[in-house]
Amino acid sequence: MNYKLASAAALCCFAMAQAAHADIVLGASVQQTGSDANTGRYYVDAYNFAIDKINAAGGVNVGGKKEKLALKVYDNQSDLNLSVRQYVQLVSQDKVNLLLGPFASNFALADSAVSEKYQVPMVQGGGASDQIFARKFKYVFGTLPAASDYFGSTMSMMKQLKPAPTKVALLFADDAFDVSVANGTRPQLKQDGLDLVFEQKYATNASDFGSIIAQLKEKQVQSVLVAGHETEVLNFIRQAKSLNYSPMMYSFTVGVPSADFRKSIGNDANYAFGMTPWMPSANQKDALFGDADQFNKAWKAKFGYEPDYHAASGVADVEAVAQAIEAAGSVDPKKVRDALAKVDFSSVYGQIKFADNGQISLPQQVIQVQNGDVKAIYTNKFLAQQQYPMPAWDKR
Hints:
The chain has 13 helices and 18 strands. It is of the alpha/beta class. The longest helix has 20 residues, at 37-56.
């Protein structure tokens, strides 16, 4: 028996039973099994965590009446076509009130077309691709900052490093998110006077970076910027070590904030730069959880693993929906949609205020793995001492 699939099915059945006894049902299709399940779990856990917290406080005030929330969630098995079908089912057959999103930009890009077609608002914190928000859709809202600016703070930092890495390579996977990252990074590299000497698009889930690393060595690339998925980043680092390639620095769009990433390669994760729009801080106040430090502790106590920005953005998605319902005094999709366009509140994740295109703006902090821990290094100024240049593998 496949216990992983059985567990996912049980969770789905439990969610459906819970939904049957709730006043307001939020629907989602999320990667609970398959290649994206490791990140997908953040969203399922975040949605349930926030809903439980809201219900424990009495529920959502809808025109003077307190109503409870529930989650009806399907496992899309990391299958894009299945995810789309499940969102159609959620709105056309299950008749959920409102939608929460999947993980990953490719999924959010396709699934949000369902919310737009049926005019049911979707708040999602799993897709950052600029393509999602360039279509002038009215019913999709996103709590990740724009993918095109993911490396913005990294490039700003690079100019101030001594010596500055001037020969830069840009590697990116062939999906909506990573292509958006690349499209935003190219012009900014030029504007910042950084020389893009090598660029390579590679297939999603690529496992062999040997030929790419050989070209990086040949061109004497000093800084490697990689937009990809966690498995690809792990493969890149492992092969960089085996081929004894150590640039002055490398930075990755994913992986570095994740405890699983650091556990996977141990000390080999050290010196890697990354970025995150969120790190837990007592300065981030929240009416539901108190502050981000308290949220961080409560999450680890409940789920047994550390939250990262995926978890925080998922919780913010539910909070945004709840705030919009209360502001609208209704669960009518159009009224909630109009209220979402006006929300402006402080959360454990940051300030939630959607721009006209439906996406929020949050600064990316540059982070680095130092001695196995993640340290915030730079926003618009240095926050801590960076470990740079990266030493050769045999000198660590």
